[in-house]
Fold each of these.
Amino acid sequence: MSDLIRLSAAELGERLASGDVSSVEATQAHLDRIAAVDGAVHAFLHVDGERALETAADIDRRRAAGDRLGALAGVPIAIKDVLVTEGMPSTAGSRILQGWLPPYDATPVRLVREAGMVPLGKTNMDEFAMGSSTEHSAYGPTHNPWDLERIPGGSGGGSAASVASFEAPLALGSDTGGSIRQPAHVTGTVGVKPTYGAVSRYGSIALASSLDQIGPVTRTVLDAALLHDVIAGHDPHDSTSIPEPWPSMADAVRRADVAGLRIGVVKQLDSDGFQAGVRQRFHEALELLERQGAEIVEVSAPHFEYAIAAYYLILPAEASSNLAKFDSVRFGLRVTPDGGGTVEQVMAATREAGFGPEVKRRIILGTYALSAGYYDAYYGSAQKVRTLVQRDFDAAFASVDVLATPTAPTTAFKLGEKLDDPLAMYLNDVATIPANLAGVPGISIPAGLAPEDGLPVGIQFLAPAREDARLYNVGGALEQLLLAEWGGPILDRAPDLSTHELLATEEGAV
Ligand code: GLN
């Protein structure tokens, strides 16, 4: 395996800046890796090697000409297919958008391009970001690089798997209920959901507009911070975008120090419902932080247990409205019934053929929850619960600086295991959803491997809105402590896919 693909984005950025390696070489190394392993992993829906190499060559020319370039200039990046990309297919994992070429770049994509980064392609995801396993993609599932028969998490399984299998040093994801953090948990990577409004949603194909947030998917906390610094900031195209400037997240990582930090452990999310190995690694991580001077206290968030129920009313309600625009007229697929049909019949045939079962389930649920006779009973009640969850956060943050929870209840489960059981699938989000309901930021970083199955486990930290830097402080500090404990990155222990025996047997392997 080429050394270039094992480097973190920060390290690669330094090698590029020193002239030691070119962006074309770094980009080619990642394209070669994709060609070697993506037949088995299936992290990408679309790879544009030609354009990536052109972009890389352009950055190399600019560097040679003495242009001042940022820390990540010339570094390749993978982009979740929920973000629209000019001239590059953008499907959000749905059949209904097959073949659609957007006329513009989403703001986070524009910003990574302006930072000189090199988009490699678009990553696989559950259709319209609905799911926790990437199995709801219309284009087939992504496989977890730790065990190809297991799920890579969802909805952003493609972004997490691309980073965990060294196909890309880092990626962009979207998190509506955990789709950046839960995939990070099951793949041994770092994932951040910024404060709601920190990163523009302009050009992000909306799932639930009051919950969606774009964020970094990386192998190190510093890489997440560097990418966060690139994509965060005010955007007049998004009316929920926060106008105030942000401090440097990379500085927070470099100055990481947890002495005196008060960390609240959410009692309700430290229970028997979580796999033993997940809890064990969680508590070991907290002990490491305590030894560095952090204070660990128990806090109660009594309404978190209703968060999933509220989320699965609010999310479908907003999604049913957002997805109404896929009407066969404006974007992508158009199916005309045999012998022709009225506008309504074409629309119905297109939506019938273009949407998968999970999307249809949520559209029906959302339409029902918003209907005149039921609005107060369902949608109205869910909004009240949302307020109670926000108050739980306010009360907790009155006495602690950050909250800590395991990121998700279990390690990666087998592909197919929960596909026919929507409720079991929804329960994956129990620890991640509260942050989206309250708009607060969250990070998941690797906490080790569960002793019972040897699979990765994440620890999540949550901070008050606009205090994203606190997550980078505690995440950066814990990462250093764990690296010393493990003697190297956790992903060094993942199977080397280029020689993995499963590669030969995997369907569609190259
Ligand atoms: N698993 C959650 C859901 O299915 C999270 C989705 C997300 O964050 N995009 O809604």
Amino acid sequence: MSKQQPAFTQTSVKAILVINCGSSSVKFSLIQPESGKTLLSGLAECLATPQASITFKYNDGIHNQAQKEKSTLVAPFDHQIALSTLVNKLVHLNLVDNIVAVGHRVVHGGEHYSQPTLIHANIKINIEKLAQLAPLHNPANLIGIDACQQVFPTLPQVAIFDTAFHQSMPEKAYLYGLPIKLYQEHSIRRYGFHGTSHYFVANQAASIMNKPLEQCNLISAHLGNGCSVTAIKDGKSVDTSMGMTPLEGVMMGTRSGDIDAGIVFHLIKQLGYTAEEVDTLLNKKSGLLGLSELSNDCRTLETTMLDKSHPQSEQARLALTVFCYRIAKSIASFSASLSELDGLIFTGGIGENSAWVRQEIINQLSLLNFHLCEEQNQATCFGASGNITTEASRPCWVIATNEEWVIAEQSAKLLVSSSTGEL
Ligand code: ADP
């Protein structure tokens, strides 16, 4: 019996392939830019190891059922193999002709890039130069761009920079109190990250308020494995908690966030750490994981905290309490950046789902006139969105982020406005 080809009803609708490439993973989504509808998504992980695998999620057009498939990748288990496997899948599902461009998430755009950018040779050189500022991320993003150029040689490739939304920060927000030459000669300044997410949820809040984004004054808290808080004035980022690297700011899953820089010298001079060990300590062994000595996963910590018989129950509570206090402090600090505030937004895996974390944060923000509605807060999880504060309070919305949609939409807009092609 011959295999039936899934018959997608939406084959005539154009779509953007969104790629988020890490050093050992590739996240992908095929998205219709106007509606945000995802035709296919998935993740290739454990790349560069024999455990490399790829997972696809899509809707079967014949039976109209959600499908999830996982398969192992063949040698050399690299990004190119992952993308070739993706292409085969897209061909099999009759989706490949839909794709009009590839949109890449690129972590660091430095001061060069505040807009979506069509990728050509010079852009790649600049992304490579910026790897000095993002050694873990930009080289991986470039691998994804190179591999996509190989497998989709005729498609335009667009870079959407995670730092771009924060390029509107004023000098007073992006300069460190360091000798100015370090900024002038070595680009050492604050850049901020999670820009596409902060931009997306700010837009959603503007729709909820029925106001143009340009008239909105907001604070958004993206709380996932990485966490950042952003002050948005008249629709533009005016300050954000992450800095030259994603290590600065609030405490995160495994990152410490802000610490006294003197601790670094103490670790090196008194405790014999190498620079490499300090790097690993602050980026991978601190935050929720470091304080709890249990997990960086908010769900595990909440369950442990609530299970009084667990020997680490109190330590899990301590980690979550410090986490929430530091976020509340960061949110409050942005009252120096804004003269008006329409509301607060929670997003990211923790912000969207953890009623406990949101309650703990909001209860420390009564000076800013935030007052929680407990019922609404409990009800707003697992993809639900809405206002979780009382009527007398300033609003606080839970909004599910969708960075992929922003990348698809901005890539599509760039194509339409450039001479490269039309949607
Ligand atoms: P990333 O930054 O890698 O995209 P996510 O935005 O998916 O991460 O967030 C991951 C975090 O969200 C983890 O700490 C996870 O425990 C937390 N999370 C997901 N679901 C829940 C939930 N139901 N309750 C509490 N925390 C949750």
